[in-house]
């Protein structure tokens, strides 16, 4: 029997998903407004001192009107992208060689795995000792934050390449360089892009830690300075700036990566 049900147009599906996500954000903000204005206290969690969205909006508007906003954004964007680019170059390079060589994996991966769980804040004293410039110390913290997601995703991407593809290319007369460029890299690219996207988000995650060192400008410094003077609405403003810019940067990295991989279609899309 022929079904009378018409398929849902793709545009309508995209619009529905977008509206659902917007509604989810609105619901979260509404719950936040209600809990903060009612001074909800359930013992485990209390909103008695949490600023309301309206208070945060006023603080955000004051920051937007301030001439310091440009300096804060410029400083933070430079530190995050400088650390991210260095992490991308080193992480992808190391990931590719470790994923292809068992000997290099045995030599390089153990010390990297020891360093990986160390939180960014624990690197502050050593970063100050290692780098004569506080700016380089802050870039290093964001670099450390971005490095390991990129490195591990690259290694997993290379190790997950179907061995039959490599064997087929070799049987057709391809050399090691051709196999690497035409088989390994395209097959591992989706995992590499995922690592880059996560690494970008982690670099922004480490921003407050980085700018605790001696920053005079930066969104992370603004957030930390607001905490030290107990200006609660400005703390939330700084957090939201980092969250929104970090999310946008991660989405941008993912979009660029997907545009460079026309052969790859994510599952479920």
UniProtKB/TrEMBL annotation:
Gene3D superfamilies: MetI-like. The keyword Transmembrane helix applies. Keywords: Cell membrane, Membrane, Transmembrane, Transmembrane helix, Transport. InterPro entries: MetI-like (IPR000515), MetI-like_sf (IPR035906). It comes from the Bacteria. Belongs to the binding-protein-dependent transport system permease family. This is ABC transporter permease. It comes from Noviherbaspirillum denitrificans. The lineage of its organism: Bacteria, Pseudomonadati, Pseudomonadota, Betaproteobacteria, Burkholderiales.
């Amino acid at each position: 029997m022929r079904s009378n049900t018409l398929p849902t147009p793709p545009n309508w599906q995209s619009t529905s998903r977008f509206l659902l996500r917007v509604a989810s954000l609105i619901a979260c903000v509404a719950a936040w407004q209600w809990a903060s204005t009612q001074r909800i206290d359930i013992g485990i969690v209390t909103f008695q001192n949490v600023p309301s969205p309206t208070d945060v909006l006023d603080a955000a508007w004051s920051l937007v009107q301030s001439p310091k906003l440009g300096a804060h954004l410029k400083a933070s964007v430079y530190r995050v992208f400088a650390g991210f680019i260095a992490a991308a170059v080193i992480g992808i390079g190391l990931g590719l060689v470790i994923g292809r060589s068992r000997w290099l994996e045995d030599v390089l991966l153990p010390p990297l795995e020891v360093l990986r769980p160390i939180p960014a804040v624990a690197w502050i004293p050593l970063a100050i000792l290692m780098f004569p410039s506080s700016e380089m110390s802050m870039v290093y913290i964001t670099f450390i934050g971005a490095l390991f997601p990129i490195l591990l995703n690259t290694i997993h991407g290379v190790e997950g390449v179907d061995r039959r593809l490599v064997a087929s290319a070799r049987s057709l007369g391809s050399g090691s360089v051709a196999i690497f460029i035409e088989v390994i890299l395209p097959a591992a690219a989706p995992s590499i892009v995922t690592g880059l996207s996560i690494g970008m988000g982690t670099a922004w995650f480490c921003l407050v830690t980085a700018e605790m060192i001696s920053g005079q400008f930066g969104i992370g410094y603004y957030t930390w300075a607001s905490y030290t003077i107990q200006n609660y609405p400005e703390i939330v403003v700084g957090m939201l700036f980092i969250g929104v810019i970090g999310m946008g940067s991660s989405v941008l990295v993912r979009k660029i990566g997907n545009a460079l991989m026309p052969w790859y279609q994510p599952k479920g899309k």
